[in-house]
Amino acid sequence: KYSLKTENNPKQVRKFHRSIPGYEITPLQKLPTLAKELGVGMVLVKDESSRFGLSSFKPLGASYAISKLIAQKYLSDKKAVLPFLETRQLLHSKEKSLPVFCTVTDGNHGRGVAWVARMLGCRSKIFVPSETANERIENIRKEGAEVVIVEGGYDRAVAESVALSQQNGWQLISDTSWEGYQDIPSWVIEGYSTIFDEIDEQLNALECMVDLIFIQSGVGALAASAALYYRSKTNRSLPVLINVEPIGADCLFASANSEDGSIRSARSDGKTIMAGLNCETPSMIAWEIIKNSFDTFIAIDDEYAERAMRKYYYPQGNDPRIISGESGAASLGALLAVTDNDNRSDFYAMTGNNHSPKVLLINTEGATDQDNFNRIISNLE
Fold it and tell me: Which residues are catalytic?
């Protein structure tokens, strides 16, 4: 079940992404040796670390949302989205003063927005929490953006970006939502559907299906996209959807455990190495989709993300090496936590396959903080 009506059309979304210079389908890696080690039937990893050369999946949402916004403003057909270069031409033909795009980010979404803005010939202002890694900030600046560092956490940076965008007439492109601000975040969610459309194509080529999908969440946009994609498929068996967060930023876990199923802020202090998931409050529209669609919510210690990064980087047998950052490795971290548990067979029973479930993971980012990445993979204890 899901409670948000949407125009979500993955084929249209993917057609749009194919029009962006540099689009390539990202790999779906098979890790049979790791699957055997963990006692599952199959481990597949959708590796987003090379998407558009930006080391994360985030440009998919940013590009679609910005192009949808431009189409809504200038085209009579409100469901239409032009190819990317035509979107640029339309914008430049209509605007004497090009828009300034802004957003808040822990790194990857802001880099995606800045990249799209640069490709469109526009300026961007990107707000980041004060503890954001220097490398992530510099990668945003390399896209031509002005970075605004906000003292405090993610929610404080959101408030600052909203206030200054309204004051200065900037166009906010947020991947989180609140009352009165829903259209753009919904388009971000739709933009991520390309990931799952590609996965379906790749699974069909392998002639297999998956039983469990682990998906990491910050404010929940990617998880909402997965829910819309898989829960709208009524003509096939559906995978179990498992949401993954850091214990230090477990806002969706807390919301799922609230008595009335309403949004709750994270119960913890926001201390986690999984910077891309370090969000205090869920996106309103994402939560409306997720709460009726996901089967299980898991919060993991940082040590599981570190273990997962090393598992990816030091593969056994003929498994491929995968470069995964702290947030990117969270889904594997959750699988490691499950397989460490003596009651894992009860967990797998949700799929109807107690012994050898086929598992899909998403590596949402590469090494976006190289210093921390090197420290973690060097620690072999």
Answer: 58, 106
